[in-house]
Amino acid sequence: MNDKQFIVANRDTLFRDLKDFIHDHQSEDKKLALMLIKIHRFRRINMVFGYEGGDQVLNEFVARLHRMARSKDYIARVGNSEFVLVLPEIMNEGHATLAATKLQNILETPFTINGNTHRISASIGVSIFPTHAQDISELINNAEIALVDARSSPRLFSIYSEKIEDIEVYSWDIEGELDKAVDNDELSLYFQPQVNLQTGEVFGAEALIRWCHPEKGFIRPDIFIPIAEQSGQIHKLTWWTLNTALRLITKWPESTTPIKLALNISAKVLKDVAFVDLVKAAQSIWNTPRGQLTLEITESALMEDLTTSFITLDELKSLGVGISIDDFGTGYSSMAYFKNIPANELKIDQSFVFYMLENAMDKHIVTTIIDLARGFNLNVVAEGIENVETFNVLKEMGCNIAQGYYLAKPMPQDEFIQWLKEYQLD
Ligand code: G
Ligand code: G
Ligand code: MN
For the segment 194-223, what is each residue's pLDDT rounded down to a tens digit? Predict the structure, then answer.
């Protein structure tokens, strides 16, 4: 661990110094790159390791950044887990790409926090003066647009271009297009299987919404769901998902124990007083057997308004609907409320499952959640299982349901039915 403290500018000094940088570059034939770096899941690092652990990561990150940077480069911390690296006097975009690649490489070595190794990932958005921007605010703005794009790029890195801006949220009317999407049949549901870890039987499937826009291609739910939540379109979407899913499952092959269906429900919808009636109506339209439908609610959504959500969840339970707490372990729940939680399932957040074999702390969290679930007689789903080793260890740990790419990726209805048939033959 490196305990040397490096000098890092803050947001205010960055703005001041950028003025000088831009001024210097105006007269010359040189370019300047602004890289916006966002460390992922930093909140979780703070939660698991405390602020001291979080600070250890930041110090080490800055130390590595200093080691890779040229002496004329400039580093600033602009948010909790956001940094800016200014690369003055570069000749072309290639230099920025090189720097971003180097940056991703220095993150490949795990970080040590309180003696535990931990992997850190970050997205990088780049914008170049004067190629992409004429002033500071445009430069930063375009780096932010690139940062959004970076999250879905293979190397978690993106350089601003008008094309990106075009597909990113900023410049087109997602809200308007989303309204049409429902009517134009652009939405579909994919299903990802869940298997009983102890018996090997199929337990159920999680339905995941997909939007294929005729011109823009696939648009990720992490982009359009938050917009739908803000605009209120989430209610229409939820009604669509509920009905589509319950209609589709009537075509699933018969099996000895009915295959459960899990749907994601956003916090916004949970607060809607009419929601319970909608679920009731959809179940009666499609004749859904009691116990087949499970609703996944994120732990953080639940925590937003405990009293109201507990009442709603109790009403849903009385309709024979299962309640699963999604992304469990990331939402700061306390034992005080846990004993009354109206749920029958916990879903361990995939970030804990990904590295549980190499990270003792992650494994410890997984064990704790499994024990907690058993103590309260709840099902426990591990999602994000990507290999057989993780699958086997979870089985030994007494986890009861598995979900992840190791078993299957989310699939369209026809493929899912095919998968079921083949799986059940084995
Ligand atoms: O399937 P994918 O990994 O792209 O999903 C990204 C996120 O979008 C996940 O957090 C998932 O829970 C959420 N999501 C997927 N489908 C739905 C849906 O139908 N409704 C809501 N509210 N969220 C969904
Ligand atoms: O937030 P929520 O738990 O609903 O997110 C579910 C998302 O996780 C789905 O979109 C699905 O595509 C994704 N997912 C499921 N299993 C795996 C896995 O094994 N690896 C990765 N990387 N993602 C997964
Ligand atoms: Mn989910």
Answer: 999 999 999 999 999 999 988 878 888 887
Measure 197 CA to ligand 2 centroid, in angstroms: 18
- In ligand 2, the atom with minimum distance to the C-alpha of 208 is 10
User: Can you say whether residue 95 is alpha, beta or left, with left for phi > 0 and alpha for psi between -120 and 50 degrees?
Assistant: alpha
> Could you tell me what percent of the chain has a pLDDT over 70?
95
Q: Which two tokens stand for residue 19?
A: 């003025």
Please state, in angstroms and rounded to a whole number, the distance separating the CA atoms of residues 426 and 421: 9
Any atom of ligand 2 within 6 Å of the Cβ of 266: no
What is the pLDDT at residue 171?
46
Identify the helix (H) or strand (E) that includes residue 365. Answer: helix 360-375
Q: Give the helix/strand (H/E) hosting 206.
A: strand 202-213
**Can you give the pTM of this predicted structure?**
0.70
DSSP state of 69: S
Question: How far is the C-alpha of 75 from the C-alpha of 403, rounded, in Å?
Answer: 41
Pick the closest to residue 104 from 83, 88, 123, 80 (CA basis).
123
| Contact between residue 419 and residue 259 where contact means Cβ atoms under 8 Å apart | no
Which of 383, 406, 416, when mutated, tests ligand 2's pocket best, judged by the most ligand atoms within 8 Å of its CB?
383
Cα(208) to centroid of ligand 3, in Å? 8
| pLDDT surpasses 80 at 238 | yes
Mean pLDDT of 269-280: 92
Cβ(221) – ligand 1 distance below 6 Å: yes
CA of 120 to the centre of ligand 1 (A): 23
